[in-house]
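Weekly structure sync, notes
Attendees: PL, DS, HV (note-taker this week)

Item 1: Methyltransferase domain-containing protein
DS walked through the input record. Source organism listed as Actinacidiphila yanglinensis. Sequence as pasted into the shared doc:
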Amino acid sequence: MPETSVAHFYDELAEDYHLIYADWDASIRRQAAALHALIGQDRAAVLDCSCGIGTQAIGLALRGHRVTGTDLSFRATARAAREAARRGLSLRTAAADMRRLPFPDGRFDTVVCADNSLPHLLTEQDVRAALAEMRRMLRPAGLLLVSTRPYDELLRDRPASTPPQVHPTANGDDGERTVTFQLWHWHDDGEHYDLEHFQLLPAGGNWRVRVRRCTYWALGRERLAGLAGEAGFDDLVWRMPQETGFFQPLLVARAGASEEG
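Item 1 (cont.): predicted structure, written out as tokens:
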């Protein structure tokens, strides 16, 4: 994985990331409701190992869970902590690579890896390493929740772009809007793609353009479930948005027995 470029992508995006949502606070609440229903217990110890600016972590903390958030981007985790504090929440955060998580074994009831974060890892070796770390974090029969884009469908169509999204500017100026969209450039292998994230910001009657770039691996559902099984997870099932209310497909699994067990 081009670790530095991924961290740089999200460092640069951290202050504006909420603009991809029409209403970030509403999305925080809606996603937390869906994840809480899958967690199925109160006050779970939850690790969000790709917390970004806190969309899932803050929502789960609002639901009463004891949440720790990590992310490769230092600026994103710093903003997550600020946003949580602004809402009167306790959210421990740290900048960390999901392949090398800085916690002892078996510390959490649930590990969340949402927002299509795992596909930033571009090889089977790296995906296995991350899933093995998530397995290490979990108590016996602990819950794994991983969300990705609907890659089975996307691999059939290989889209070149996403529709533009139009939202009010961050400072709330009346009538001003920010426009975001993505261009996707598929590699020759048909599985990896370079993403260009465009953000058009109003600037004195004109537009200022920001472009950020990163690469993803379009991991199909069967392949990702197979890698999770190799990493020590059992009871693997994909739960779809129409079933869960979560905005992306979710791989739901349980930590299997360790080799020592």
